[in-house]
Amino acid sequence: MKKVLLLGASGMLGSAVYDVLKEKYNLVLTFRDLREKELLEAKYGGTENHQAEAFDLKFVYQDYLEKKGDPGEYFNSFLEKIGDVDFVINAIGITIPFSLKDPALTFFINSAFPFILSNLFGSRLIHITTDCAYNGQEGAPYDESSPKTPYDIYGFSKALGEPTNCLTLRTSIIGRELHGFTGLLEWFLQQKTQKLKGFTNHFWNGITTREFGKVCDKIMQNRERYPVSGIFHIFSNTVSKYDMLVKFEEKYNLGCDIEADDGPKLDRTLSTIHPVCSQLEIPCFDEMLKELN
What we know:
The protein has 293 residues and is α/β, with parallel strands linked by helices. The chain has helices at residues 12-21, 36-44, 57-65, 73-82, 103-121, 153-159, 184-189, 209-221, 241-252, 276-280, 285-290; strands at 3-7, 26-31, 51-54, 87-90, 125-130, 167-171, 173-174, 195-199, 202-204, 207-208, 230-233, 239-240, 257-261, 266-267. The protein has a single domain (3-179, 206-236, 268-283), classed as NAD(P)-binding Rossmann-like Domain (Rossmann fold, 3-Layer(aba) Sandwich). The strands form four sheets. The protein has a seven-stranded parallel sheet, with helices on both faces. Helix 1 crosses helix 8 (209-221) and helix 5 (103-121) runs parallel beside helix 6 (153-159). The longest helix is centred in the middle third of the chain and has 19 residues, at 103-121. The protein is globular and about 55 Å long. The two termini are 28 Å apart.
């Protein structure tokens, strides 16, 4: 059984990836606080079958500030605990709502840390990046050759953290969360019997967090079929934010009234110049949504 280091196992992305992989791999799960493991266990179970380690990037950052080497004392100690691994999935990142709290730390985690990982693990690393590398005002759909046009701290930090000596996958994700509840889906689930506005000219063609887990599984099971390094876009069919809210209401039946609204146009949809996305056979939005609980 292949050994996989899953960094950020309690986040929106990491928790869903865990659920997809937990029966197929020997996982090493990281948590900023090991008490977060209880949330993962309560939601998906099976955590007793996998190694769990505390790992807080603030301490890695501090080692760099104090010039304690590359990758530093804290990270070296962590690497000794986990031993050799076949793959690493980096699901750690500072998200938009928290990106301005400590901008320097945001840039370290989103921009520098992916390169620290890629220097250590090379083609064994699967790293996720974002459609927020593009401003969404012109040029969509964006392919891998499109100029990056970020316009906020989060977008800049992620656009700067895209190593090419590992497998870097650009997409946009939605999914359930164990804590925090800052994403679009969790926001919707808290709006019971509300009248909501959905933008008809905000376009999206990302994937669910669970589908990203399936993508990782396909790549790790058939490594020779996919590129070992580079930046690749993965995406599904295009929907508007209005369409998404309507589909959420159909699935969860919260009694929300979704009203179509024209806001400022935003289109960060992705396209590709490579065959990877078609090889992965990403399902349509409706099919992916069916698998979210």
